[in-house]
Amino acid sequence: MKRVLSFMTIAAMLMAMTALPAAAEKVQNAAGDWEILNEKFDDMTGTADLKTVIDISDAKTGMSFAVADAAAESLPEAGSHGKVLKVAKAATTGSSGSDSYIRFHYSSNKLVANQCTLEELKHIRASFDLYLPEKVPAGTNMRLRAYDNYNKSTAGDNLFSFGADGQISFLNGTSKAAYETGKWQHFDIYLNFDGTNEYSVYLNGALVADRLKTTNLKECIVTFGISADNTTGVYTYYYDNAQFVVPGDFQMLSSSPADGAENVSLTEPVELTFNHPMPNLDASNITVSANGTPVENVTISEKNGVVKVTQPAGGFAYETTYMVSADTGLTDIWGNSLAEAASVSFTTEREGAAKSDRNLVDENFDDGTAISTDIFDMGTAKTGMSYTAVNAANENLPEAAAHGNVAKIAKTATETTANTDGYFRI
Questions:
Q1: What is 166-220 written as a DSSP string?
Q2: Which residue of 298, 329, 351, 357 has the fewest CB atoms within a 10 Å radius of its CB?
Q3: pLDDT tens digits, 183-222
Q4: How far is CA 285 from CA 74, 300, 301, 335, 336, in A?
Q5: DSSP code of 413?
């Protein structure tokens, strides 16, 4: 009898093992990191496609989840975003305790508790783009929520929430950060469960929450998304470029000037770009030398993985070979050391050398279908004013092939309001 039970136990264990989701297929990107989720929505057509990669709740009355075309929705940067996820609430509901949410899962499947034993989930970056047409309605608690898993446990944290006052509040943090409406915003959440249980948040490349403590998340993160509490308000938001990224080796990716460059300006800052940010950079791990002699009084700073080295007062010397080096004492946001020392060497210009022109703005409108508000300030107060990027050939303009896309500024209606201007400023 004991032998029979033993075989039955083994069989049950084998069945349980085969029921577990397969390990995530990781794809190494150009930065040397491993992507276990990279969802741009561009290959999707409807809700059925959405449900293959995300968990969505439509319990709220009037909630809708759809794949939408960014251009058709008149969103900025439509050419680079293509299709996006549109989440909208268009009706009131009296149901209590119901949430609307979207949740992305590690490895695009539903998870079990033992996946938190995976070493790769101790360090992870969760990222997404968010577009809010307007501020979150009063009474709506919209937040970024992360879970340590999806079926067998509900441990999770609201890492940050969006307020009706235009501010983001962080879990276990005292400071706030402003969010913007009418433009895409990019969020990177770095989580460290290697004995610290901490998270950091970058908003549009700027650090806004540094090493805050999680409360319920203790082991890992396998699910993240945005949820909103029951509300009688209406709202819409758009979501794109969701990622789970597992860090690869910490390494330098590029430099400016490039290694071996010549005739470098005496006042051109040196930038070393790494694949992970270093919010707690120890500048002693970055050294500068001139023809082998250490250079003093340089200024070293870091922002989102880019180390900037600014010359001493007066700039570099003419016709001198400089080397900027990073040693393996350099550590990233997770505490990983630089995989191998890195350096860049360049030679400055000679005295009296002719200087080439530099483009501070070079915009020919050919890179997209929308005019970038990052470069241009436009007045839209006048009735009938429009500012669009159009194709020169479609407008029957001369030299259309040479011009490609152009900016079209048009006024098609009369204006009776005083003190309003239609303008276009670079």
A1: SEEEETT-S-EEE--SSSEEEEEEEEETTTT-EEEEEETTEEEEEEEEPSS--S-
A2: 357
A3: 999 999 999 999 899 999 999 999 999 999 999 998 899 9
A4: 47, 10, 12, 14, 14
A5: S
**Alpha carbon distances (Å) from 110 to 162, 226, 268, 397:** 27, 17, 50, 55
Torsion of CA 324, 330, 331, 337, to 10 degrees: 110
H or E segment to which residue 79 belongs: helix 78-81
pLDDT tens per residue, range 256-279 = 999 999 999 999 899 999 999 999
Residue 421 · residue 377 · CB < 8 Å: no
Q: Please answer whether residues 362 and 369 qualify as being in contact, where contact means their C-beta atoms are separated by less than 8 angstroms.
A: no
Paired tokens of 422: 């239609």
Q: pTM value?
A: 0.77
- DSSP-assigned states of every residue in 230-272: --SS-EEEEEEEEEEEE-----EEEEESPTTEEEE-TTPPEEE
DSSP state of 277: -
